[in-house]
Amino acid sequence: MDRQAEHRKHPTGGHAHPALRLVFWETTAGCNLQCVHCRRLEVSQELMASDLSTVQGWSLIDQIAVVGRPVLVFSGGEPLMRPDIFDLARHAKDHSLLTALATNGTMIDQALAGKIAQAGFDRVSVSLDGADARTHDEFRGLRGSFDQAVRALRLLKTAGVATQINCTIARHNQEQIGQVLALGQQVGATAVHYFLLVPVGCGEQIADEQMLDAFEVERRLLKIYDLEQSTDLQVKATCAPHYYRILRQENQRRGLSAPASGGQDPGHPGGDPALHSITKGCLAGTAVCFVSHDGKVFPCGYLPVEAGDVRRQSFGEIWLNSPVFAELRDPAKLTGKCGQCPFKLVCGGCRARAFYLSGDYLAEEPYCAFGANLK
Hints:
This protein has helices at about 55-65, 85-95, 110-120, 135-140, 145-160, 175-185, 200-205, 205-210, 215-230, 240-255, 315-320, 325-330, 335-340, 350-360; strands at about 5-10, 15-20, 20-25, 70-75, 100-105, 125, 165-170, 190-195, 235-240, 290, 295-300, 310. By secondary structure, the protein is an alpha/beta fold. The chain has a 10-stranded mixed sheet with strand order 9-8-7-6-5-4-3-10-11-12. It is globular, with a radius of gyration of 19 Å. About 50% of the residues are buried. Residues about 1-15, about 35-45, about 200-205 and about 260-280 have low confidence and may be disordered.
């Protein structure tokens, strides 16, 4: 098998699809926070018996490496709660995988920052859902978590680890987008990624209160576009595939020839030029997938449609043969205004938000202001 092939032939549908670029592994459902927007309705304050074991984790990494050389993101829950997290990370590095750690930052002290650096993580993302303690702490459910997260970013920078701020944009912080970027500059972050809230898990319970409407989303994405022009930091809108449409519209309007973002892969920790060629918004099931703490595979962490289970079949079999993934890789199957949209090949709409509103992951993106008359 050619592991570096840019495209592969789908064995059942006959469609070429992009190589595997990014795998999020929810290493545990255990977490020390109770965030109001968490994709999970229930979190545990401790590790769970159903988490993949160390040996099972090694096997998963082996199987991923057979399929390709994606970025492997160790997420959670809170991945630093796993005592074997550094052994798992080193195993991934032994397979020449780029590795990233997604953490809330509250557990990181100077000693732990040193261990993270020694494990060779290419990037560590720390979640900050506001530019000040009050905004962030209320969303994260722990007083003092903002100060701890900022301290973690500074400690990681001192330890020589590239850092990224992940910020979920919703009504409570939509006016702080610029301030979050300024904070990223202050702490020496490499990147700031803005995530649009996806109404799944706890996020569904706060959707009415916190979801931006389609026109508010458009304004916030235009703001992110402007910020991207003003900084050397890597700025990206994530879970916002319509941003790729905005990139093209604004670049054309301003006489620019290429997307300002370079089409970077969501969560990309840097260092691999091949990953900078991706120009499609929603990559769920096409170049990205999510492995849950108990081994179930989904198109992304926000789309609760199971594509397989690594405890019953190999990761490669799921990635290549899943009917769910096959549908997501065929833009002709998109319906509603997404199916008619001239930007569907570079956007595709958020499949998770479509599923939330309609129960159909191929339906139209409900939070996009473009093409309201496309039906």
